[in-house]
Amino acid sequence: MFSDLIEFLDSHKVLILGFGREGRSTYDIIRRHLPEKEIGISDIKQIELDDKHVTLYTGKDYINDSIGEYDVVIKTPGVSLAEYIIPKGVILTCQTDLFLKYSDCVCVGVTGTKGKTTVATLLYNMAKRSGKNAILVGNVRLPALDSLEDKQPDVAIVEMSSRQLEFTTASPHIAVLTNIYHEHIEHHNGFTGYVTAKLNIVRHQTADDYFICNASQSYDGYCSFSEIPSTVIKVASDINGYESVYEAVEQNDYLLGNHNIKNAFLAAAAARRLGISEKDICGAIMDYKGIEHRLEFVGEYEGIKFYNDSIATIPQATICAVEAIEDVETLIFGGMSVGVDLDDFENYLFKKKISNLIGIPDTGRQICTKLANRGYSGNIILAEDMDSAVNKAFALTPRGKSCLMSPAASSYNVYKDYEHKGKHFKNLVKNHVSS
Question: pTM here?
Answer without folding.
Answer: 0.92
